[in-house]
Amino acid sequence: MSAPSRNKVAATRASLPRTVILLGVTSLATDVGTEMIFPLLPLFLVGTLGAGADFLGLVEGLADTVSALLKLVSGSLSDKLGKRKPLVLFGYAIASAVRPLVAFATAPWHVLAVRVTDRVGKGMRSAPRDALIADAAEPGQAGRAFGFHQAMDHAGAVLGPLVATALVAAGMSLPTIFLMAAFPGAIATLTVLLVRERAHATSTSTSTSTSTSTSTALPRRLKTYLAIVLLFSLGNSSDAFLLLRARQLGVSTAMIPVLWTVLSVTKFGSAWLAGDLSDRMPRARLILLGWIVYGATYLALGVATSAWHVWATFVVYGLYYGLTEQAEKAIVRDIVPADVRGRAFGWYNLVVGVTALPASLITGALWKTYGPQLALGAGAAIAALSGILLLLWNGRTQEDGKARRI
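Given the sequence above, the corresponding C-alpha cells read:
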C-alpha cells in the first residue's frame, strides 16, 4: 500500500472531530423531540381539533416548502458571513422553542403556524450544518462524518416514537406529551453551544477540487450532479405511499408504527456502516447501489401479495437510505471549494426538498388512475434512468481529470 493510501485509510479510521460528534448528538436529541410529536399530530389535528385530511396535507406541504426554500438562503448567507454556527444555533433554537407550543393549539391554524415556524428553524440550520460538518471533517473522512450524523438522526427517529408510545401507555394526554418534547429540544440547543467552528478557508478547496479561485460560481459538474439528483427525487415520493401499500397487503394498523420503527432501525445501521464505506470506494457507485435497492424494493412492493413480503422489503429498503444520504452530501463536499460550501449544500437541500411535493402528487395521480403497481414501477424506472445518468456523469468527471474517483 502506498504512503498516500495509508494516510487516507488512517484519516478515515481516525476519531471523528468533536464538532461532528456534537452535531450528531444535536440531531439525535432534535429527532427524539420531533418524533415524539409527529406520529401523534394527525390524531390531534383531525381527532381533537376537527381538521380534515386536506388541511393535514396543507400543513405538511407548506411546512416542507418553506423549509426547502430557506435552506438555499441560509447556506448562501453562511458563506457571506464566514460563520455557520450562529445560523445553526438559531435554527435549532427556534424549532426547539416553538415545537412544544402545539400543546396549546385550540384551532387547526395554530398547528399550521407552529409547524411552519418549526420548519423555518430546519430551513435555517440544515445547509450551514452540513457545511459545518464538511468543514470539520478531515480529508478521506467526509463520508464517515455524514454517515455518523445520519445515523444519529435515524436513531432519534427510532427513540422518539418509542418514548411517545410509552407516555401514551402511561396515560399521559397528547398536549402533555407535546410539552415533554421541550426537554430533548433544550438538550439539542445547548449541545450546539458547545460546537467550536473551524475557520473555513476561502482560497483552498476540498481534496477533490483543483480550483483555488475564490469565485462564487458553483462548478458546472455540481450543477449537472444536482440535475441528476433532481430527476431521481421526482420519482422518490413520500414513504407514506409505502405504508399505504403495506396496509393494503394486510399489515394491521396497530403494526404500522412497528413497521416504521423497523425501517428506522435499518436506516440507522446502514448509515453508520455505509458512511465509512463511502470513503473507501467511489461514492457514485455507492449511490448507484442505493438507487438499485430503491428501485428493486419499489418493484417488489408493487408485485407483493402478502404481509410478510412487506416486512422483508422494508428491511431491505432501509439500506437505500444508508447507501445514499451521506454519499450524496460527501460528493457535494468533494467537488466544491470551501468558500461556497454553504451555498452548494443549500442548493442540494433545496433540490431534495422542493421535489417532495410534485413527486408525491405524481405518484398519487398514477396510484389513483392506474393502481400501485404502475405508480411504484414508475418510481423504479426513474431511479434506473437516474442511475445511468450518474454513471455517465461520473465517467466524464474522471475523464476530465478534475476530481478523484467519486
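The domain at 17-200 is CATH 1.20.1250.20 (Growth Hormone; Chain: A;). Try to locate this feature in the C-alpha cell string yourself.
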